[in-house]
Amino acid sequence: MIKHKNQRVGVFIDVQNMYYSAKNLYNSKVNFGAILETAVADRQLIRAIAYVVKATGEETAFFDALFHRGIETRVREITVFSDGARKADWDVGMAIDAIRISEILDVVILVTGDGDFVDLIEYLKHHGRQVEVLAFKKTTASKLIDSADDFIDLGEAEDYLINPDSPTKHKTKPRKPDPNNNSSFFGPHSDEI
To answer: Distance between CA atoms of 34 and 170, rounded to whole angstroms?
Structure first.
């Protein structure tokens, strides 16, 4: 894996994926600032974009905190269907941005464990881009890890978590999030940056 200071990098952050992984695995919040620093690795940051969901209107402080870290936000409202089901999916938007912006990048960095991005990785690599993935390995699709040029397991260091549990936290069984709990669906608060 080649990493040098002249590489132009773009970082694309799947906030919901990271939020629920940290919450379910470690009962912790995500330190997006530390993740961005690791992702960039002293290279030239061209763009960093976080894909977020607005559910309650209380997310403004979190969005502002991302902005002050140099991370742009793309915001999507939750769609509530007549049967009560909720959906707020950023996969297509994140993939389109990564493809579009990759024209001015040497390295595309995806911060997600979602296996749906394998095709995006293959496309970017075919077009000469180095693709790196940062995520919590325990909740990352193995095919995503295998397809990336480099994978960094965020679960190997507590630097990526805020208020982590005891050292035995890695042994806890992941819980499934309650999509009907509106207060936790949108993700982190401003103190989780």
So the answer is: 19
